[in-house]
Description:
Elements: H1 2-9, H2 15-48, H3 52-98, H4 100-113, H5 118-142, H6 152-176, H7 179-204, H8 210-237
Helix pairs in contact: 2-3, 2-6, 2-7, 2-8, 3-4, 3-5, 3-6, 4-5, 6-7, 7-8
Amino acid sequence: MDQEKELHGLEPHDAGVAQRLNWLRAGVLGANDGIVSVAAVVVGVAGATTANGPIITAGAAAVIGGAISMALGEYVSVSSSSDSQRALIDKERGELEEMPEAEFAELTAIYRSKGLSADTAARVATELTAHDALRAHLDAELNLDPDEVLSPWHAAFASAVAFLSGAILPFATAVFLPGSLKIPVTFLAVLLALAVTGALGAKLGGAPMLRPTIRVLVGGAAALAITFAIGSWLGVSGVV
Length: 240
């Protein structure tokens, strides 16, 4: 019994818990984007030149531009989703006002399709309708909670903060360390941060941590190696 309680305690039965876990996973992914994209920029520039000016300029542009881009993209995406959610809520509200009998029959049929008897389904539909008809129909028909309509501003802010939290590490190491240490320490710091975000993302998703962590590390290392190689080639060739 205790084991069963422990297992069920780990499951996100509550919709609010599931949504918070989704936000946490999105935050981890945003931080991972900040780590990789900014590190790739500063390492690429550092491969071409050891001067701090270009590295700071490119790094700052990558940090600010990336955060704005992440926030704007999330705002547009979530705005579309929230508009659709509100439209569905308004549509359901209108149907309940215009044809309550048909909507009640639909709700009863939904619970019948879930395996309830005709009497039990009618009783459940009656009690839920009496309590909150709109919420009952949104939940049964659309799996939608009217109190959990997504906020685009909240999503944009969270996305920007997540990106910045990841971007600050490679930016700081590339800018403040002396020339001989910039690239190796940035590489190590980025790989360590990626390992942490990869493991955390896997844990939040309930997946084994080793494989997702390795994927993130390989991808990040490849991005850094490629941009460093390109930057070095551009510096040696005299293009920059």
